[in-house]
TrEMBL record:
InterPro entries noted in UniProt: ATP-NAD_kinase_N, Diacylglycerol_kinase_cat_dom, Lipid_Phosphate_FormReg, NAD/diacylglycerol_kinase_sf, YegS/DAGK_C
Pfam family, any one: YegS_C
Cofactor: Mg(2+)
Organism domain of life: Bacteria
Origin species: Pseudonocardia zijingensis
UniProt KW Kinase keyword: yes
Regions crossing the membrane: 6-24, 237-255, 261-283
UniProt name for this protein: Diacylglycerol kinase family protein
Domain DAGKc: 41-169
Length: 349
């Protein structure tokens, strides 16, 4: 009997621990019906910087559904304004601890978000919602909101170059991811109204381009890295981190978003027939043999014109300027891209 009593006494602490465990587990189940679901503060966090004028109804619900379905916390939803097209919102997202920031809008929204994220190590995802979406097309981001959001949350991290441009000696540099330049291209961007883009989409740029085709060439001086000045009469000079245009056309065949250099192209037709020849060279991706189309690569570029000319940065008109000082910032931005080539299946969302 004494032996049984001793065993019973010895078992009491064990029984107490077991009972305590049952109580704790019971409380945990009562507070959290799904023990496999992490606490909100332990889940990864996405922030969505969205241009409210570009997105369709239901976009927010779709993005939130993808986030929660993949075990992420409810995303921060930060809308752009006329005064701040995305840079301040992206900086706030970094401050709040976002693991990835989704740029939901057109090329202007993407550029503004990248301006805040470059150099931070925080990844940027793309949810295309504009007219051009050139960077998204370049890296293969799918068009649908649901599919693009999945890529932004689960895709590969790809360090890409960032272009930086100083206009007429301004103190601050602007960021660009696709193209920046002066002349004919910028004039098209400047003269294409938002209402027309809303009605006919990319065709709006074609309409504006036809109107501007008969303009005069401008005199410019190009300085590439430490090379000698190059003087040209041209219609437009573009510096590109990516060479892809609307419709899959490639203006700069050698351009790659992570090669550590910027591609430069000068287009110098003087007649409508000259523009036809330039268009054929773009379509066939020929780089040599025509004085009207010249290509270079450089890490820094200075473009000086004799008189102020229209300028654009990633499709956004930035006014007239006489000097553009442009440089590449290699691998400054982490971009979330598809881990495999997009299959082209329709977005179920």
């Amino acid at each position: 009997m004494n032996d049984w009593w001793f065993l019973a006494l010895a078992a009491l602490p064990v029984l107490g621990l077991l009972l305590a465990g049952v109580v704790v587990r019971g409380r945990r189940r009562a507070a959290d019906p799904d023990p496999l679901t992490a606490e909100p503060e332990d889940r990864p966090l996405a922030a969505v910087v969205v241009n409210p004028t570009k997105v369709e109804p239901g976009t927010r619900a779709r993005i939130e559904s993808v986030c929660t379905g993949l075990g992420w916390a409810d995303p921060l939803w930060l809308e752009t304004t006329v005064e701040d097209p995305g840079t301040g919102q992206a900086a706030l997202a970094v401050e709040k601890g976002a693991d990835v920031v989704l740029a939901c809008g057109g090329d202007g929204t993407v550029r503004s978000v990248a301006e805040a994220l470059a150099g931070t190590g925080v990844a940027m995802g793309l949810v295309p919602a504009g007219t051009g979406n050139l960077l998204a097309r370049t890296v293969g981001t799918p068009d649908g909101v649901v599919a693009a959001t999945r890529v932004a949350l689960t895709g590969d991290d790809r360090p890409i170059d960032v272009g930086r441009i100083r206009i007429d000696g301004a103190e601050e540099e602007r960021v660009f991811l696709v193209m920046a330049g002066t002349g004919f291209d910028a004039a098209i961007m400047e003269s294409t109204p938002e209402t027309l883009k809303g009605r006919v989409g990319p065709l709006a740029y074609v309409i504006s381009g036809l109107r501007a085709m008969r303009g005069r060439r401008m005199r410019v001086t190009l300085t590439l890295d430490d090379g000698p000045p190059l003087r040209r009469r041209t219609r437009t000079v573009l510096c590109g981190n990516s060479g892809t245009l609307l419709g899959g056309l490639v203006l700069m065949p050698r351009a790659t978003v992570d090669d550590g250099v910027l591609d430069v192209v000068s287009l110098a037709p003087s007649t409508v027939a000259g523009w036809v020849a330039v268009a054929l060279r773009v379509i066939t991706r020929q780089r040599r043999g025509d004085r009207r189309v010249e290509h270079w690569q450089a890490r820094s570029i200075v473009i000086r014109s004799e008189s102020p000319q229209p300028c654009q940065v990633d499709g956004d008109p930035v006014g007239d300027a006489r000097e553009l000082a442009i440089r590449v910032d290699p691998h400054a931005l982490i971009l979330r891209v598809p881990d495999v080539a997009p299959p082209g299946t329709p977005d179920p969302g």
